[in-house]
Each structure stands twice: as structure tokens, then as C-alpha cells.
Amino acid sequence: MKRLQRLLQWFFMRGEALFNAAFGERINPLYHLGEISFFLFWVIAASGLYLYAFFETGVTEAYSSIEALTHGQWFIGGVLRSVHRYASDAMVVTMLIHLLRHFAFDHFHGFRWFSWITGVALIWLVYVSGINGYMLPWDRLAQFVIVTSFEWLDWLPSFGGTLMRNFIHANSVGDRFFSLLSFMHIGLPLLVLLLMWVHVQRVPKARTTPPRPIVASLLVTLVLLALARPALSQGGAADLGTAVASVRLDWFYLALFPLLVAWPLGQVWALMAAGTALLVALPFWPPRLRRGQQREYQLVVHSADGGQAQLRLREGETLLEAGLREGLALPYECRNGACGVCMCSIEHGAVTHRPYQRIALPDNLKDQGKALMCCAMPLGDVVIEVEGLAHAGSAPAPVLTGRVVGMERLAEEVMRVLIELPEGQRIAFNAGQYINILLDDGERRAFSFANPPHENGAVELHVRRIPDGRFTGHVFERMRLGDTVRFEGPLGNFTLSDRVRPIIFVA
Predict the structure, then answer these.
(1) Is 481:404 a contact under the CB 8 Å cutoff?
(2) Taking a C-beta distance cutoff of 8 angstroms, is the pair 419, 405 a contact?
């Protein structure tokens, strides 16, 4: 498996480099596969709603209504039918490449198991929804898809041949059956949307909309395909009195159907079950023989202007993922080691890098201790420095106003600042949390609490002077007793959670 992953990495890295040269890192489609899949879903949903408004669910009316929509109003209905078809095909392609890419770069072990498992379920649900869509036009292709699908389902012991009784005679299929198919084609995409939302919940700051140039390019491409090669019905209306001799398959959705014709149905079930079981088992292979092997490390993030934040870093998690998960507004763009926006300096500890584009992190900078946060994974506790540090949590932290009541130089470049809250007001926090000082222009500077949680009538900060630092320079040069300070907090969760085992503190 490792050899296969290295081979796939080689192809992906060269493909990404080629696309970067052609489009730039910001709109490289390989960096936006998940977002493109989301967008294609909305294209499919919008075009499908228009088609559904003119579709008749009766057996005798289904084919004629589709034909009237396709040819009677080809400039809208015909184009949207084709856009619906090609967007569905494209969604399958982007989802499969997305899955293959995550497999290639080993993005499915550890805490990522949830996104991987939901992604596998999502792909199967999209397939079922698409196959269901091919049943609705009630042309010869729909007849082939329906009969073959229900024959396959009928192999299962729970059905035992009862399903195929509905397709013995030409008049066996009634309007109720078509109403059921239509209901499924509404319900299944809703389940797809729900599972897509669940799928991204474990991804910090997940994006669901691709950049505008990609959106425009996709729409133009879909419309041009619709005009150049319209999606049409095949072979006339369905007729259960005659067998389907030949059809042109949509290989994106119906690639399994030739096997259903050529193989024993039990073997196809076995193939699908084995393939699904393999995908589901990947995150848990090789199995961990002992509990507690999933390690956690400490990550300390320093800002170049004096801010600081501390957080936990899970084994196998990148520095960027950990920071975004904890709400830090770290700089990033591509999240795939191509743009270099998320470059940081390793002050302490060691990291290992996933594959990245050498143009984003040349070897000479790497030798100087630079790292790409989107690709760097810890080998132990790590301290890094980034340009700027702010809180970006989804829920706004409380904003408080305090008054400077104490200032003391603890060292030549360290100032102890005591900020008192309004009378009767206290701030509840845990040791290890921090606050963001709010500057006049909205920028933030992060500082850890220096006082213990039980003495929370005021906030004590230890401010280290940074050359040209905006806030630290203000503290040492212009801050006076009685000045007002606005801040938000408490923030962060770098706090003690395991109080059972003995603890050794090393200073």
C-alpha cells in the first residue's frame, strides 16, 4: 500500500505543479476538489428543480414530458437537462479524485477516520441517487437500469424474487411506482446534502465554495457541453414487452451494469461488499495493539509582535489544522504546500513534512528552520513563530473593558501589567487560557493569563517587548496607570485535563 501511495503522490505532485504553473496556486482545481463537489451539487439541485417542475410522474406521461422538455423548450429545458447530466458526472469525478488524493497522502488515519468513513458513505449515496435519476425518463435506458437494478436487489434473500414480479408484463408498472421513484429522487439528494454537511464538520475552517474563477469556468464548460452534445433519451419509450438489446451507458454512474449482465449476481455483491469493507477498514489498518498509542503534543505559537497562544496538537495533525481547530487566525491559502503563505519558523522541537511543492519552501529556507504549517506534522512538542496571531473562533468571545492599575518592570524587556475589571466583575478562566487585546483598528494581540484562576478580579499580563511591536511598544513607551484596555476572552483550551496520573513539571 505504501508503494501505491508513493506512486500516486508522484503523479499528484507533478499534476499540481503543472496546474500551478497554468492557473496559479489560488485557483488550482486539485486544491478545491471538495469545494467543487459542493458547487456541482447546487448546480444539480437547481437544474433538477426546474426539470421536476415540468416532469409528469405517470407511466404514460413520463417519457412524453421529458421529450417535450428537451425538444419543446431546448433553449432552457434541453440545456438544463444536459447541464444536470454533466454536472452529475463531474461530481462523481471530483469526489473520486478527492478520495484518491486523500488516500495517496495518507489523510485517513487517526482522527481523520470520521471524514474518511463519511466520505465513503457519501460516494455510495451519490451513486444510488444518480442511478435512481436514470430510471425517471422511462426510455429504453431507464428500462434497462430499472430491470437490471431490481434483478440485482432480488438476489438478496430478503426479497427472494418478489421485486421482479413488478416487471413481468408491460402493464405491471403503475403510476405509484413512478411516484415512488420521484420521491426517492428528492429524498436521496437531501440525504446527500445532510451527509456532505456532516462530512466537513471535522475539517477546521472547511470551505464549501470554490473561488469565483473556478465557478465561472465550471458553468461555462457545462453550458458548452450541453450545447455541443445534448443529453437525449435513448431508443424511444420503455416497453417491458421487449428486452433491451443495446444502450449507451453513462460510464460515470453505470460502470457496474455490464458486470450485472455478465457475472453471477452473487459475485457482484461480493465484489461490492469487499471493496466497501476495504475502504472502511483503511483508517484502522494497521490495527493498534495497545490502547493509548494516539499521542498528543504541545504547540506554542508566538507572534512576531509578542502575541502567544498554546494548544494541543494531535499525532498526525498538521500545525495549521491544530491552529484552525483552536480558532487561531493563522495565515494560509492553498492548504496543500504550494503557495508558501503559511510559512512559519520552528523555534523549538522538530517536525516532518508531508509532500509539498519545493517552490513554496526552498531547501535553504527549510535548513534555516522554516516550515509550512499546512504540511508540517510534529515529532514532539513544538514552538513556532508566525507573522501575526489572532483569535478566529466561530462563536465571538466576550469583549471586556478594564483599567490599568499596575505596571512593573520584571526585567529590562518584560513588563508586568495589571488590568482591573469594573467593580463586581470577574473573569472566569482556566490556567493556560489567554486573552486578545483589541487595538483601535480591530487587530488583536494575544497574551496568556499570568495570574491564577482563583484570583480573577483582575488580569495580570507579562508583556515582552518586541522591536517595532505596536502593542508592546505602546506598553513600554506610552501606557500609563488609569488607561483603558479592551480585550476579549478567555480563549484557548491548552489546559490541564488529566488529573488522575502523577504529573512532573520541568522548568
Answers:
(1) yes
(2) yes
List of residues 6+ apart from 329 with CB closer than 8 A: 388, 389, 390, 391, 392
Spell out the residues 6+ positions from residue 384 whose beta carbon is closer than 8 angstroms to its own.
299, 300, 301, 302, 319, 344, 345, 346, 347, 371, 373
Chain segment 207-257, per-residue pLDDT in tens: 899 999 999 999 999 999 999 999 999 999 998 889 998 999 999 999 999
Q: pLDDT tens digits, residue range 428-474? A: 888 888 899 998 877 888 899 999 999 888 899 999 998 888 899 99
Closest CA to 140 of 36, 42, 63: 63
Q: Which fold has domain 296-386?
A: Ubiquitin-like (UB roll) (3.10.20)
CATH superfamily of the domain spanning 32-231+249-284: Cytochrome Bc1 Complex; Chain C (1.20.810.10)
Distances from the Cα of 391 to the Cαs of 57, 203, 344, 438, in angstroms?
53, 18, 17, 11
The three grid cell numbers given for residue 203, joined into one nine-digit string: 475539517
Instruction: State if pTM tops 0.85.
Output: no
Please work out, in degrees rounded to the nearest 5, the angle formed at the alpha carbon of residue 395 by the alpha carbons of 389 and 397: 65
